User: Fold amidase from Corynebacterium mendelii.
Amino acid sequence: MTIPTTHRSLAAQVSAFVDGSGDPVECVEAFLETAHGLAASDHGFAHIEADKALARARMLVDRRDHSMQPFRPGRLFGLLVPVKDLSDVAGIPSAYGAVYRRCFPRNNDRTAAAIVAADAVVCGKTQTSEMGMSAYTEPVGMPAVDNPLWPGHTPGGSSGGAAAAVARHLVSMAHGSDGGGSLRVPAAATGTVGFKPAHDTTDATPTAQGFITATVADAAYAAGIALADTDTSAGHPPGKVKPFKPVTVGVTTTPIHGDGTVSQVMIDAVGEVADHLARLGHTIVDAHRPYGQETFAAFGDVLASKCSTITGPSSPLVAWLTRKGLDMTADHRARAAQTFMDVAATVENRWTFDILLSPTLACDPPAIGHFSALAPPDDFAEQTRWTPWATLFNMTGRAAISIPWLTGTRPEPVGIHLGAVHASTETLLRLARQVHP
Assistant:
């Protein structure tokens, strides 16, 4: 009994489940056996759902084999998909990253409902930071999630549990959300792929729902995006990425947000990727900051404003953001929201290239407890220094992805960030596949 891992694509796994050559029940059983042999800090789950997952897998198999109706499998048929512990799944406890917030939802929220409707098997809830408000995953009253790639170090956040579960091959995909890099940051920290789809930023909304996977092809499949870019004709290896119209790639290793420095390994990795894309025929140009630091200050104000509705006990960071939000005047909130929503037009006007290439992180993941040991304002500033590129795409609403790149100088990959400026989401993903499959 083995879990289908990232050695098989999501599409191949679903195909096997549909034609009967794969068994979702066996996969759930193997997942449970493996996960229960790990510490909570290692598997990254806030809650592992055994009984409901097994019952769900059996139901899917029964529907496949014995339904009187035409069998129409969903896109995620049989796949094990944990849901981030900021989304509600009926009958599974939600804690939202803090033990004192634990409750038992009676209904699926919109995100969980879509995953279930696609015929996935929800096998539990993955850990997050309290209310998803930090780029590290140290849930209050529960074990901090360890990094499979850098033991003893943060896996990033706030989708750190999802990233750990995929990096340890417990599952092939895991749901997460991204309000400031919360999919892409943990992907970069754990050597996985984090894709933030394009999203609507109306009312200064920074958050998109997405998935962490092992490959770009799986990220596209998980998001339901068809990539017509593989050549399976005679004489070509299956899945070989076909050439497509060259694009212009803007490159920067200078922080767009914050006042930090960037480690040399990150700079070197971006240079290698830029050279690789140039050899494939793409045009490489320098990218400069499109705006000043006051724009990121508006993002922080929007975040704090959204925290103003949080009630009850909170961690120091969340309490600080909540107080900051409550202290804002209505006019201050409105100005911050407008500045946030103006970023898309500013970036599109000042950047004429198609896609931005940068590191995802300014340095390798720090030790667990590094950020949370700081006073809240310093904690927030230090997180910004660590993740100075991702948030721009939460403000523009355009798609962005973090992919691993091996430099050849060490075993741990570097997270490479690609964000759509004028390119379509499909073009972004096709370019990403030229860097990582």
